[in-house]
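Quarterly update from the structural biology core.
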Amino acid sequence: MISHPMKIILKNTILKAVLFTTIMVAALSCDKHEDLEVGKTALSEASSDWYVQFLVDGEDIYGLGYTLITTANSADETSLWIDDHQHTWWFKVKCPIDIENLKFSAADLNSKVGDYEVDVTITNGTIIKEGTTSPGGSKVDSIYFEAEFSDDPGTIYQLTGHKRTGLAEDEH
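Predicted structure, tokenized:
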């Protein structure tokens, strides 16, 4: 049987061990590296949802109005995925981008959406920070690029529009 003073010493020793362990774990888990910016990628300035018009010579020949496309960074963060979500010509391509100038273009980019396969040439691609005004009156980024599809050679489509804000007054 342990005497009362021994119980107190044992209890204090256990408490000190637990306190010491807690302090050591807290001290060792401190991040000594520079802070990382969470949620940002190298292409975050170019990655977004966009409402664009799909035009030929400035005219909406298919009567599509504004449709939603998405741009997203590639895994290697040197190219921009451009996906029309089957709203225009059914394409999804990975296009190199100059992120410093927000310019993108490339020839013969292969796209396969479902059973539909086509090569796409993207030219004159640009994103302009706060380059336009949304329907609701907000200053937003604009996007413009031209696309030529291998199954419709010679026809240059212009995709032009604005960054999606998520505000009800800007939805199309």
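Residues 4-28 form the longest helix (25 residues).
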